[in-house]
Design a protein that fits this description.
434 Repressor (Amino-terminal Domain); Rossmann fold; 3 domains; 5-stranded parallel beta sheet; 9 helices; 5 strands; elongated
Length: 235
């Protein structure tokens, strides 16, 4: 493998008054464009058919000089942070942990970073998390909302922040969402028990009034009704 050494007397060309390395100074000294350096450092060298020699030269030089991009300045300039906010109710919950893992993995494929917030099933924390993510100029927010309030979510969306709900959504509210088919899942689960001869089947609810809970209860009731099993209450 060919290596490239950087002459000692040229290192000062890479530093500004704050002693920080910039891609502009690197481009000037290496004799390549700022765009080329930016693409290489963002892992897009091969995609834009930049030669292996140039990719190696840029990455080796950046590594030797301990180059660190100023993402805040970059975001202000491009109005794009390459960061997505993710708000989950409880990251210790296996279901939400798996969601976070999948989202982070997919985001990385598209050169996005994830800013994870744990709302701890607290609506006040959820609202503060949205405000925090907006102040950091994230490119969008993915959220599994809690409770029955949606006004703050609609406000965030109307302000220009792309927002997508996951797992939970609000019926009748015009916000994009991705959710499991809770009705069918509950219907099939209840029917499975009925098929094995069970008649006294309990349904444990989550947060009453939320869309997932409503759908699951409706699926449960539908299965009982379909099999002519009376709905009984424990009280």
């Amino acid at each position: 493998m060919t290596t490239h050494s950087l002459p000692f007397y040229k290192t000062d060309h890479f530093r500004n008054e704050k002693n920080n390395v910039t891609i502009q100074s690197m481009a000037k000294t290496l004799g390549v464009s700022v765009t080329t350096i930016s693409r290489v450092l963002n892992g897009l060298g091969e995609q834009f058919r930049i030669s292996k020699k140039t990719i190696e030269l840029v990455t080796t030089t950046a590594d030797k000089l301990n180059y660190r991009p100023n993402n805040i300045a970059k975001g202000l300039r491009l109005k794009k942070s390459s960061t997505i906010g993710l708000i989950l109710p409880d990251i210790t919950n296996t279901w939400f942990a798996q969601l976070a893992l999948g989202i982070e993995k997919e985001a990385r494929k598209h050169h996005y970073n994830i800013f994870l917030c744990n709302s701890n099933d607290d609506i006040k924390v959820e609202k503060k998390s949205i405000a925090l993510l907006q102040s950091w100029m994230v490119d969008g927010i993915i959220i599994a909302p809690i409770g029955l309030e949606s006004e703050h979510l609609q406000k965030a969306s109307k302000s220009g922040t792309p927002l997508v709900l996951i797992d939970r959504f609000f019926e009748g509210v015009n916000l994009p969402y991705i959710s499991s088919n809770d009705f069918e899942g509950s219907l099939e689960a209840t029917q499975y028990l009925i098929n094995y001869g069970h008649k006294k089947i309990a349904c444990f609810q989550g947060i009453v009034g939320t869309s997932p809970n409503n759908q699951r209860v409706n699926g449960y009731k539908q299965a009982l009704k379909k099999n002519k099993i009376p709905l009984t209450r424990p009280w």
